[in-house]
Amino acid sequence: MSSTRIDKPTVLIVDDIAENIDVLKAALINDYTVRPALNGKIALRAATIHPYPDLILLDIMMPVMSGYEVCRRLKEDPATRNIPIIFVTAKSEIEDELEGLNIGAVDYITKPFSIPIIQARVRTHLALRAATQKLDVQNNRLLQERELIEKILLKMRSADTLDDRYLRYLIAPVEATAGDMLLSTFTPDGRQWVLLGDFTGHGLPAAIGGPLVTYLFYELAKRAYSGALLLEEINRQLCLRLPIGIFFAATMVEIAPDRKQAIHWNAGLPDTLLFNKDGRKTHLSSGMVPLGILKNLDIAGASTHVALEDVDRLYIFSDGVIESRGTHKTMFGLEKLEAFLEQVALSLYTLDDLITLIKIHTDSSVHEDDITLVEIQVSTTPA
């Protein structure tokens, strides 16, 4: 006949009166391993003996070292700070109880105590500790899995290299697996594709569709697809494969080989800005809903054909740029961005200076959303 041994939880009882320890030990010994300590110094040593106590019953009024001091030291030690402590004491004033709870105790029982109450409180707090430890284990496992998934997603998204000819860009993600993504390549017949996309939110949910979009973008470019067919396939695949609530706002620009014409699509991102050589600015607004929401989109009908000249510049950007909010909840806004880009054209600012301006506007060193700004230079000679 075999039996499985289940280790009992360990309860450390600290009291300078041996009779009190005996009473508590008799009440708990059937269900727990009891470890006694007659003063604070012994208690500190007993709390660091393996296995560590699962719970501590601690008197307050003891010579040399009070229970308050014992509690403070245990909470300062990383090895013992998470052990629940219940004060069992004759100090019955509200101020005494508040002090005990404020320095980290989970409960406070006054003497003379009731044995059933002691047993019930010990049982409750040990159950809470067990649940917390189980949750910590699960959280650590989830964190490790998240880190692994992030590495996989980042590797999948970076499998094809961004072709940055004719581009200058600023990318400032909130997290490594950003919701914003920038893709650029050339088709075999010389057309340039530039796609800026923004999945809803950020972190893993926002990044989960990134590898699929990246694969379709570079694979269909190699096959010399049109930009419209690319967007149709991205939309079809996102509708097919992603859950409701995750969608993909995107701006796509397809520039002709002679760089004198461009086709522009905007699916839910802020206006694209076209800066002409004579200083005129043209807004190219969104013409359709983000991708991944509706199966049937008139992508060809939502396109805009744009005539280009040699020194024109196109700016596409995510909403994290203009929606950054200041201390008075005012957004950075399109007007400020246009003024900034005018200074960029005069070489008074670089694109990276935008982060400084946004930090000044928000009065914060941390931005709440991914920030991506892309300049497409129309010049026939790459920068």
Descriptive account of the structure:
This protein is α/β, with parallel strands linked by helices. It contains eleven helices and 15 strands. Helix 2 runs parallel beside helix 3 (67-76) and helix 5 runs parallel beside helix 7 (210-222). The chain starts with 9 loop residues before the first strand and ends in a 6-residue tail after the last strand. It is 36% helix and 22% strand. A five-stranded parallel sheet has the order 2-1-3-4-5, with helices on both faces. Strands 6-15-14-11-12 form a five-stranded antiparallel sheet. Strands 7-8-9-10-13 form a five-stranded antiparallel sheet. The protein folds into two domains: 10-136, Rossmann fold, CATH 3.40.50; 158-377, PPM-type phosphatase domain (Phosphatase 2c, domain 1, 4-Layer Sandwich), CATH 3.60.40.
